[in-house]
Amino acid sequence: MASNPVWVAAALMVVAGFSSFAAGEKAVPCYFIFGDSLADNGNNNWLQTVAKVDYSPYGVDFRRGATGRFTNGRNIVDFFAEYLGFENYIPPFATATIIDTLSGLNYGSGSAGILDETGAQLGQRIPLDVQLDNHLISVSRLALLLGAGGAYTRLGQCLYTLGLGNNDFLNNYFRPEFYPSSRIYTVEQFAVVLANRYKEQLQRLYVAGARKIGVFALGQIGCVPFAIRRYGTNGSASGCAEALNDAAVLFNVQLKSAIDQLQATLPGAQFVYIGSGSDMLMTVRRKGLKALEVLDSPCCTVEAESGQCVPDQPSCPDRSRYVFWDWFHPTEALNSLTAAAAFEAVRPIVAHSSSVGERSMIRLAAAVQAS
After folding, report:
1. Is 37 a catalytic residue?
2. Cβ-contact 133, 105 below 8 angstroms
3. Least confident of 15-19, 53-57, 339-343, 366-370
4. pLDDT (mean) for 28-49
5. Catalytic site residue 329?
6. Whole-prediction pTM value?
7. What's the burial of 55, exposed, middle or buried (CB within 10 Å: 0-12/13-18/19+)?
8. Which of 36, 78, 326, 355 is catalytic?
9. What's the confidence (pLDDT) of residue 291?
10. How high is the mean pLDDT of the chain?
11. Which GO terms describe its cellular component (predicted)?
12. Which of 241-245, 255-259, 274-278 has the lowest mean pLDDT?
């Protein structure tokens, strides 16, 4: 397949941008993460839930093994931490010390959503409202360490990213056997309800001192193996469950509008809508990147009920070829490409970025050029 010169040029320009930054310097003093299983790095390990993965083969390519990350290696926010120049990955709130708070914490929770009830059929989870409650605990700890004024100053310098909404569709709206939302709202109405709730939560984060805030758009949720198997493709050209993808588009439109409103009305705020990277899965499917050629099959043996890997079973030997690790979650290979593209949206609101990010951007450029 012929390469797309626009994609190649854009990727190479990003590589050039990364290489101009000084290595070993943090772009921000701290990084706080809110999200679902795409961000969770161990918070769910302590919960009574189906949605936890503190066992092999998860983490087979991660230096500390199975930590609770829902993939074989690093997730997207791990790559962000590298790009920002952190020596260590951001620790989960569940096991963090008060000193850890100085560099930021990860509040992400598998099966969590914007709405409190989302994911309830899977067991305990930490919805966004509770993640924000946990962040207020972190703010109080920072005040103990730095004083109220010092904490407020530091919080305004940190980066915050949020990535939720996937489960509000996959484990709420499109699961009528568990939730009434699809009988109460049309999908258009639900997207508005969801975005309005998210807007209120983002305002709450701003009141707690956050100023540099990146919000991930939803990706192609209809292209995850679970969605394809459960809902079918109805002969769609994409090979995906287009009803779910259409729902994600509706939500993203509302989310972008909400973020624009917050940016216009909250003094000193730097909100960023992270849309770049959300289409990486479709890009891989349409362009047929040679580095990622297994599009619909998971890399591990999957439990039919949970869609997660069967404990202690071997995974596929060449994980760099697979888009999906299990029925829901991408491999480190796709995470690296998504993170590299998504980080471009965030770079303008951070002081500078480590040249560590150059590696993933080189990979992005090479993968696109080879396609």
Report:
1. yes
2. no
3. 15-19
4. 98
5. yes
6. 0.90
7. middle
8. 326
9. 74
10. 89
11. extracellular region
12. 274-278
Are 195 and 261 contacting, i.e. CB atoms less than 8 angstroms apart? Answer: no
Q: What is the DSSP string of 238-302?
A: TSS-HHHHHHHHHHHHHHHHHHHHHHHHSTT-EEEEE-TTTTHHHHHHHHT-TT--EEEEESB-B
Among 61, 168, 329, 360, which one carries the catalytic annotation? Answer: 329
d(CA 353, CA 3): 28
Residue 214 pairs with which residues in a beta bridge? 161, 272
Instruction: Give the span between the Cα atoms of 135 and 200, in whole angstroms.
Output: 16
pLDDT at 292: 86
Q: Tokens 């992270």 identify what position?
A: 274
Place of tokens 């050029």: 369
The amino acid occupying position 105 is L
**Which residues lie closer than 8 Å to 369 by C-beta, 6 or more apart?**
3, 8, 11
Residues 6+ apart with CB under 8 A from 194: 114, 115, 165, 168, 251, 254
207-239 pLDDT, tens digit per residue, is 999 999 999 999 999 999 999 999 999 999 889
